[in-house]
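Our consortium's second objective concerns turning raw sequence data into structural hypotheses that experimental partners can test. To show how far this objective has progressed, the report includes one record in full. It was chosen at random from the queue rather than selected for favorable results. The single chain below, 121 residues long, was entered without modification.
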Amino acid sequence: MYIKGKDVLTDAVIEGLQDKKASHIVVADLTGIEDTVCRKFIIAQAGSTTQIHALAISVGDKVRQLCQMRPLAVEGMRQAVWVAMDYAEVIVHIFLPEERAFYDLEHLWADAELTELPDLD
């Protein structure tokens, strides 16, 4: 379960996403699953490739500011239909709606504890 204030990195990522109006944000807590690549997936949706760029930059800026961290890797910025940002313990996925539906990470990690965050207006 995601509880604001318990995890500074997760909070920073979510704040960066919400600052640029990401939608359908889901936090997948993988800590109860053996042999996972990270503790959490944070999955978000954007309405355009331009918004994906803005979201990725916002997340990077917010995590640098609040956690003094840079991602280990960022993939997908060129096409900007699915950007993945690897912070070791947390991996951020920012999708266009079609790609999100196709890859369906929430279903892939269905045994994870999923927390859906309300969209901000």
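The partners drew two points from this record. The domain at 8-102 is CATH 3.30.460.10 (Beta Polymerase; domain 2). The two ends are 23 Å apart (CA to CA). Both points have been shared with the crystallography group to help prioritize constructs.
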